[in-house]
Design a protein that fits this description.
With 408 residues, the protein is α/β, with parallel strands linked by helices. The chain has a domain of 108 residues. Strand 10 and strand 11 form a beta hairpin. Helix 5 packs across helix 6, helix 8 runs parallel beside helix 9 and helix 12 packs across helix 14. The radius of gyration is 23 Å and the shape is globular. The N and C termini lie far apart (57 Å). 36% of the residues are buried.
């Protein structure tokens, strides 16, 4: 890519990239906007009928004037029915883009699903390939089969409509056939009751700005769950809330999930929230899944150096330290990703072999998988001898101790 010495693209190069991007996105948009698409085009089969959603080698790119950003670059994991899957990783690692791909809410035409598969279990042996579902059909699935609790409720609620009108709209759109306005209103008030709002009839007639952050988040949860979706995407649902309200919201989500037998895809930075809520954990870094397993496996014996670094950087009750550990370095440029392990330049446990191509997934148990050269059979002894910071070594010892106690 021809760049000037100061690191900026030339105007000619930028125009060339824009033309190429337009050509690719126009083709993808043409396919996406087709009308009267037969159901057979997006019908598929689940690999495992016990899964609510299956992500299989998903690639979601953003075509910018500076180049192509591979936000999600080959992500694969499952969300089992009735379970909570926690997706964890630092900002910009592709967590939210993965969930927006499932909802088909990417910023288009720049954001596009390029390849891979997202299979949604519709029940009764039927499944949809989300990447092929046309727009008009997708509008009926959103809020009905899949719903999302967004990160900031104040920007997700419409400031000029009352709370009741916004919940009524969801019911009328997805489940309003044959229902009168009074019946829809009654169901909206029941939904507000369900999420623990005491003055539900009063809140029904209020505007979003009249409510506190916790109340607005409860309203968002009521809107998301009012049609009993099969999968709930909770995108950092507690980030804007204080600690006591966080605990209430998490309890509420857990109880409501069991009540309507839904699955939750929980996106967060907070390892404490993941430990409390998740059955399975997916750790993402720079658009890829680097480790996945049950919550017990990830917390008791983290395997990838990035996961170990995340665990070492959180405060521990009863242990006093002068300074918390932080992972050195920064994430590589998303427009020009390296051809080796994306974490290599930040890794404090790296081996000489890490200069090779991106490592493939290694199974440590039937459910625990990690993408790291340290677990290749031929590098195990080499990995044991590597020098590493004391915080990392301490985390490994703590993990081994937890694992031993669990086995007892």
């Amino acid at each position: 890519m021809a760049k000037k010495n100061d690191g900026y693209l030339s105007a000619a190069e930028s125009r060339r990239i824009s033309r190429e991007n337009r050509r690719i996105t126009d083709q993808l948009e043409k396919k996406r906007k087709r009308k009267n698409v037969p159901e057979s085009e997006y019908l598929t089969q689940m690999r495992d009928p016990e899964n609510a959603v299956e992500f299989d080698d998903l690639h979601t790119y953003f075509f910018t004037d500076a180049g192509t950003v591979k936000s999600v670059d080959g992500v694969s994991f499952d969300v089992p029915i009735g379970k909570t899957v926690g997706v964890v990783g630092e900002s910009g690692c592709g967590k939210s883009v993965t969930s927006l791909s499932l909802m088909q809410l990417l910023q288009r035409p720049q954001g596009q699903i390029i390849s891979g598969s997202i299979r949604l279990n519709m029940g009764n042996g039927k499944a949809y390939e989300i990447s092929n579902v046309p727009q008009e059909k997708m509008q009926k699935l959103r809020g009905n089969m899949i719903s999302m609790i967004f990160q900031e409720p104040m920007t997700s609620l419409n400031p000029v409509f009352r709370i009741g009108a916004q919940i009524d709209e969801v019911i009328a759109l997805h489940d309003g056939e044959g229902k009168s306005k009074e019946e829809i209103k009654k169901r909206s008030i029941e939904a507000l009751d369900m999420v623990g709002i005491a003055n539900s009839e009063g809140v029904y007639n209020m505007f979003p700005h009249e409510l506190s952050g916790g109340m607005r988040q409860r309203v968002m949860i009521a809107m998301a769950l009012v049609c009993s979706p099969r999968i709930i995407i909770a995108d950092e649902p507690t980030t804007a809330l204080d600690v006591t309200i966080q605990a209430q919201i998490l309890d509420l989500l857990r109880n409501l999930k069991d009540k309507i037998n839904s699955s939750i895809m929980l996106i967060t930075h907070d390892l404490g929230v993941i430990a409390e809520m998740a059955d399975y954990v997916v750790v993402m870094y720079a658009g890829r899944v680097i480790e996945k397993g049950t919550a017990e496996e990830i917390f008791a014996h983290p395997a990838h150096p990035y996961t170990i670094g995340l665990m070492a950087s959180k405060p521990v009750v009863g242990r006093k330290v002068d300074k918390l550990y932080s992972i050195p370095g920064k994430v590589p440029n998303p427009i020009n990703m390296p051809d080796y392990c994306y974490f290599r330049d930040r890794c404090e446990m790296k081996l000489p072999c890490c200069d090779g191509e991106y490592p493939c997934m290694i199974s440590l148990s039937p459910t625990h998988k990690v993408s790291c050269y340290r677990f290749y059979e031929e590098h195990l002894k080499e990995a044991e001898a590597v020098d590493m910071p004391e915080e990392i070594r301490e985390q490994l010892r703590a993990s081994a101790q937890i694992a031993a106690e669990t086995e007892k």
